[in-house]
Amino acid sequence: MKKIRWGVVVAYVILAIFAIITVFPFIYxxxxxxxxxxxxxxxxxxxxxxxxxWSNYAKVFSQAPFGRYFLNTFITASVTTIxxxxxxxxxxxxxxxxxxxxxxxxxxxxxxxxxxxxxxxxFTNYSTIAQMGLLNTYIGLVLPFLTSVFYxxxxxxxxxxxxxxxxxxxxxxxxxxxxxxxxxxxxxxxxGLFTVGLLSFISGWNSFLWPLLVTNEDSMRLLNNGLTAFTxxxxxxxxxxxxxxxxxxxxxxILYFIFRKQIIRGVVRxxxxx
Length: 274
Hints:
- It is a single chain.
- By secondary structure, the protein is mainly alpha-helical.
- It has 2 domains: 1-63 and 236-246, no CATH class; 65-233, MetI-like fold (Orthogonal Bundle), CATH 1.10.3720.
- The chain is 75% helix and 0% strand.
- The protein contains 14 helices and no strands.
- It has helices at residues 6-32, 37-41, 55-63, 66-97, 103-113, 118-131, 138-142, 149-160, 164-172, 177-188, 190-205, 209-214, 223-233, 238-273.
- α1 crosses α14, α3 (55-63) packs across α14 and α11 packs antiparallel against α14 (238-273).
- The radius of gyration is 24 Å and the shape is globular.
């Protein structure tokens, strides 16, 4: 008979407790979106309901333009992801494979930018966007996020593991840098590129502070800002607030569960390479 390893048992118990604490709010949010007002306000809270109130979601869409919020969020997240991924790809390639004057100095400057919190420059960005007349526009929403030093350094670490002999051989065979990037580098780095793209999309989907500053029209709000406004407008109707919160979070949760293996594989592989 195997001896009970109490250390392992305690570790699993602690992990289970943390998992319950982490997951329970999401489960209750989804269940609460299908409850009546009385069920969401009872003490102790109702954890299951016999008659799901699917009409809560219809009421949410009738009281606020969540369809427009979804469209705005998808557009801004998609544009930010595509452009920032493209820029990070080119920047990382240049830092790994090209040799030019001031390269080391540029790397130091870019690295120092990682130490600056985004909140420190957000009002400077706001002033610039306002003076350009880009408030309440898609351009104003995405412009400050079309480049990412963090994603560039992530891909730089990823590309650094690819033998430079491959790059030199492609140059000898007459390939241009552009051909090397799209025919060799991108196919060999699909995991890292996919991880960066997915993380960028999730970040764009969950953005809150910047859209709050640069949009004051209901038609240009993103999901999280629309949810905040809806929470204020709906008053004490907690069941509608939970339903709206579920609408906001569920797409990203589904996206994560579908691609979780790719995300973890890309992050772990990059850490091992680094």
